[in-house]
Amino acid sequence: MVGIRDLAQRLNLSIGTVSRALNGKPDVNEETRKRVLDAADAMGYVPNQAGRALRKGSTGVVGFMMQTGSEITGEGDMFFMSVFDGVQTVFARHQLDLVALLCSSQEDPDAYLHRVVARGFADALIISATKREDHRIDFLANRKIPFIALGRSETDAGHPWLDLDFEGMAETGITRLVEKGHRRIGIFAPLDDANLGFILISAYRDVLNRHGIDFDPDLVFRGYPNERGGHAIAHAIAAMPKERRPTGFLLANEALSLGLYNGLYEVGLPPGQAIAVIGRDSPQAHFLVPKLTCFTLSLRELGIALAESLLATVPGYEQLYPLGTVRRVVPLELFEGQSDRNRGGA
């Protein structure tokens, strides 16, 4: 790997002169600067990021913390890959790099974040999978590390966040099912204390109440947010007495639909006929039969908004993104398929 010392020796210049030329300092004439840049390109010069970070007080790296493991991501996670694309689209404008910080499902997220911060290799952070009470938020705020949360939390440090409109999904989805004749409507909720579960169940109860339908805790199906979780829900529905089963179902996670469809066919309760289903859009959902009625949004645009909202709080970038502290619920659109027909399949 060619370093700055090799470059200086090749050009017969001092290391200081080469460094100033590479960093665009005004005291280096244009002819010398061009020589240095041309040689750096020809030799494949790679800057020493550790040394650069010590000199500049920054790394040029932003970390995106997410949890991994089959219980969380199932057979793959298209959600975050699409969000990453939008985030890096923004960071590339400023030669910033996005690094995925993968916290194992077997490790405590708080301990993992403490270790990441102690190593100091990121200038700012994006955290996801926010909990009802999330200690990571206070930890980062107290250390004055720029960050944004993908998801709301009851822990409030005045920090920026973006979240999906789970209340809107509940309002639109449940009202649509009620208008199609359904009174027993099931819903998915995560097993852990993820805040989206609390938001979703609270909105679900409110919407049912407005339609004069009593809340039944047996219609809240808790599981892992992946294909296997959806498959398990289908078998749990089949095990219920017929008169207690849901006739309609709302899924707020994009990975569940594949498993739910497969499981419902297995137990003889075909989606769109025996049970109406409204879910979340995903590339895989496009192959489901009947066509899934689903909520959709541009994940790439979500990533762009996430990155710009973060940079609005990072010193040196606030003037480029004068957004203030962004705290926004992102709406989703409903795509009408054939999976949520009127009760009885009419």
Structural summary, described in words:
41% of the residues lie in helices and 16% in strands. It is an alpha/beta fold and 346 residues long. The chain has a six-stranded parallel beta sheet with strand order 2-1-3-4-5-11, sandwiched between helices. It has a six-stranded mixed beta sheet with strand order 7-6-8-9-10-12, with helices on both faces. The longest helix is centred in the middle third of the chain and has 16 residues, at 195-210.
List the helices and strands and how they pair.
Elements: H1 4-11, H2 15-22, H3 30-43, H4 49-56, E1 61-68, H5 70-73, H6 78-91, E2 97-104, H7 109-119, E3 124-127, H8 135-142, E4 147-150, E5 161-164, H9 166-179, E6 185-190, H10 195-210, E7 220-223, H11 227-238, E8 248-250, H12 256-266, E9 276-280, E10 293-296, H13 299-311, E11 327-330, E12 333-335
Parallel strand pairs: 1-2, 1-3, 3-4, 4-5, 5-11, 6-7, 6-8, 8-9, 9-10
Antiparallel strand pairs: 10-12
Helix pairs in contact: 1-2, 1-3, 6-13, 9-10, 11-12
Largest sheet: 6 strands, parallel
* SSE pattern, N- to C-terminal: HHHHEHHEHEHEEHEHEHEHEEHEE
Oligomer: single chain
Q: What Rg, in angstroms, do the CA atoms define?
A: 25 Å
Query: Helical stretch count?
Result: 13
Q: Name the structural class.
A: alpha/beta
Low-pLDDT ranges: 49-57
Mean pLDDT value? 89
Report how far apart the termini are. 68 Å
Share in helix: 40-55%
- Bin the strand percentage: 15-25%
Task: Count the beta strands.
Answer: 12
- The shape, in one word, is elongated
In which order are the strands of the major sheet placed? 2-1-3-4-5-11
